[in-house]
Amino acid sequence: MIRRTKDRDLVMYPRPWIHNIINLDCVQGNANNLLATAMNLANQVGLDSDKIIVEMKSGDYTNLVKTFDKYFGNYVILETTNEELLNAS
Asked: Which residues contact 12 (CB under 8 A, 6 or more apart)?
């Protein structure tokens, strides 16, 4: 699920007790971190990480985020204030 960041403080001070929220507006949301997280999660839940990584890399950043959400939306909440990403989901 991609949702709007409700509190701007989340960008600067992520809530450490919630482990499955990634704020796309800060360092957590960069492409390399999302790719590494996808690889780790795929291995944990028994998905083909190579296939997912290739699909994530097959387009732009919006495609990467949408693909991440497609496979891991049940495990991770993605937060952002970016309208393009919110409208793409």
From this structure: 26
Split into its structural domains, the chain has a count of: 1
Q: How many CB atoms lie within 10 A of CB 34?
A: 23
pTM for the full predicted model = 0.80
pLDDT of res. 20: 84
Is 79 in contact with 4 (CB distance < 8 Å)? yes
Give, in order, the Cα–Cα distances in Å from 43 to each of 6, 8, 48, 60. Answer: 31, 32, 7, 24
Q: pLDDT tens, 20-53?
A: 889 999 998 999 999 999 999 999 999 999 999 9
- List the domain range (segments joined by +) for residue 64: 2-88
- Give phi and psi for 23, each to the nearest 5: -90, 115
